[in-house]
Amino acid sequence: MNVDGVEPLTGAQQMALKMREDAVTDGGYPEKVLANAPDRAENFYSVPKVVE
Amino acid sequence: MSLTELTIASARQGLREKQFSARELTEAHLSAIEALNPRLNAYVTVTAERALAQADAADAALADGRFAPLTGIPLAIKDLFCTEGVRTTAGSHILQPFVPPYESTVSANLLRDGAIFLGKANMDEFAMGSSNMTSAYGPVANPWTRRQDNAAVLVPGGSSGGSASAVAARIAMGATGTDTGGSIRQPASFCGIVGMKPTYGRCSRWGVVAFASSLDHPGPFGRTVEDCAILLGSMAGHDPKDSTSADIAVPDFAAACRRDVRGLRIGVPREYRMDGMPEDIERLWRQGLDWLRDAGAETVDVSLPHTKYGLTTYYIVAPAEASSNLARYDGVRFGLRESGADLRDLYERTRAAGFGAEVRRRVLIGTYVLSAGYYDAYYLRAQKVRALILRDFTEVFARVDALVTPTAPSAAFAQGENMDDPIKMYLNDVFTVPANMSGVPGISVPAGLDVNGLPLGLQVLAKPFDEETVFTVGAALEHAARFDALPQIRAGF
C-alpha cells in the first residue's frame, strides 16, 4: 500500500500535551520506594559489582 | 432473588433502602467466590478481610445517609491495576512478589466512590492474549459451556478473562478491565456480559501496568449497559499524573442509556464481513441492525477501507511499545530477581525465568521492528498506516453517529484450541483492534446465542469522547435483544 506523504501517528489522541510547573510534587519516602527491592543496602538498590 | 443476581443499579437502590447491608452483599459474593473460584480461577488474589472492612465502612456511611455512587458495591479489579498493599502480578511470574506502594488512579476513583474490592482478577500475562491461556497463574474457565458438549472447558477470552468470567458467574457485580486490542470487548462477548472501552484519555493509565501505552485503555465490565455507564462515571476523569489523560468533563453516562436512538445514523462497515465467519454471527449482526431500525434509527452502508491493515499494524505497534515498556523488568528495583555472575547475567536470568512464551515472542518482535535497520520499514510505516485507519474513522463519523459490527469473529472456543498458531489467535481481535489504533470508544453488548448455545456480542463504536452515543445505541440493542440466557456455572448453581 502507498503511504507516501502520510504523517506517522504516534498515539490515539491528537491533544497537545499539558505544561506543568517544573517542581517536585512527590517523594521523600525511601522506605516505600525500596519496599519491593529484591536486594538493598541502606537507601540504595544493590546489584552485582559492575566496575572492576 | 439472590443478592449475587442483582445489577449494580438495583443493588445501589437496595442498599439505600436498607433492604440488605453492604456486609450481606459482600459476604454473598465472598461465599460464591469460595464455591466457584476453584473451578473458574477468575481471581488470582481474594482480599476477603479487606472487602469486609470496606463493607463495614460502607454500612456506616449508608447509616449516616452518605451515598457515594458505588457505596457498598463489590467489584473485581483486573490484576493489571496497582492496588496499594495488595499484590499485583499482571498475570506474570516476574511480578509474583510485587506489592505496590500506591493505588492506580482508576481504582482510587472507585474507592473514593465507595466501591468494595473483592480481589484481583486473573488475566493473560501482561495483557498479551485473547484466551487467558498465557497467565502464569493458570487459565480461567468461561462459566458458559457448549450445549452438546458440556465437558469441554471454554476460554473466557482475553486478556481481561478473569474479570469477564467473574462478572458472568456472579462472583463480582462489575469489574475493571483494560483493552489494548480488544481485551475488554472480546471477553465480554465470549462471556455474555457488557464490556466498555472508552475513548483514549478518558480513564487515566496511571498505576496500570503498561503493555502498549498508546493503545492501553482502562474500562468497565458489567451485566448491563447501565452498570457499565455507572462504573465508567466513577473510573473516568482528568488525572495530571497521566500526560495523555483528557481534561474533559465527565458527562452523566447513565443518563445516556435512557436516550432513544430515533434519528441516529448507524454505519454498517462493509469490511467487517470476514471469510469463514460463522453464519450465526452474520445473522445476529443483521438482526441487530433491524432492531435499531425498528427503534427509529437509520442504517447506512459505509466503508473503512484500511480495516484489513488493522491487525498487521497492531502487531507491529503493540509489540514495539511492549518491548520498550517491559525493559523495566530487570530484577533490580522490584519483582523477581534471579542471581547471576554479573549484572548482565542477572538481567538475562531474571527475564528468562520471569517472562512466559507469548511475552517473550512479543518482546522479540518489538525489538526487531524498532531495531536500527528495520525501524523505517516496519515501525514508522505501521504508524503511517495507523494514521490512515484514524482517517477512515474521522471521515465516516462525519456522516454517521455510530457504527455497529460483530465484536469477535467467533464465540468462545475451548481451552487448547487455537493454541498451535499465534496468527489464528491474533485473528480474534480483527474487529476490535481498529478502535484501539484510533482511540474511538466502543462497547460489546450480548445480543444472542450461537448454535452451541454460546453468547455472541455486538459492538458499537462512536466518535472520540462521544461515549454517550455508544451507551445510547448499546442500551437500545440490549433492550431489543432481551438477552436473558444464563451461564451454566454461576453463583448458587
Q: Can you walk me through this structure?
A:
The complex is a heterodimer of chains A (about 50) and B (about 500). Chain A has about 50 residues and is largely without helices or strands. Chain A has one helix and two strands. Chain A is elongated and about 55 Å long. Chain B has about 500 residues and is of the alpha/beta class. Chain B has a domain at about 5-260: Amidase signature (AS) domain (Amidase signature (AS) enzymes, Alpha-Beta Complex).
CATH fold label of the domain at 3-259 in chain B: Amidase signature (AS) enzymes
Order of helices and strands of chain B: HHEHEHEHEHEEHHEHEHHHHEHHEEH
Shape of chain B: globular
Distance between the termini of chain B: 13 Å
Radius of gyration of chain B: 21 Å
Q: For this entry, what is the oligomeric state of its chains?
A: heterodimer
String of helices and strands of chain A = HEE
Radius of gyration of chain A: 22 Å
SS-based structural class of chain A? little secondary structure
Helix and strand topology:
The complex is a heterodimer of chains A (52) and B (493).
Chain A: H1 30-33, E1 40-41, E2 44-45
Antiparallel strand pairs in A: 1-2
Chain B: H1 8-16, H2 22-40, E1 43-46, H3 48-63, E2 74-78, H4 105-112, E3 116-121, H5 161-168, E4 174-179, H6 185-191, E5 194-197, E6 217-222, H7 225-235, H8 253-256, E7 265-269, H9 279-294, E8 298-302, H10 310-325, H11 343-354, H12 357-370, H13 375-396, E9 402-406, H14 422-426, H15 433-438, E10 442-449, E11 455-462, H16 467-481
Parallel strand pairs in B: 2-3, 2-4, 7-8, 7-9
Antiparallel strand pairs in B: 1-3, 4-6, 5-6, 5-10, 9-11, 10-11
Helix pairs in contact in B: 2-3, 5-6, 10-12, 10-13
Keywords, separated by commas or semicolons:
heterodimer, A: 52 residues, little secondary structure, two-stranded antiparallel ribbon, 2 strands, 8% helix, elongated, B: 493 residues, alpha/beta, Amidase signature (AS) enzymes, eleven-stranded mixed beta sheet, 16 helices
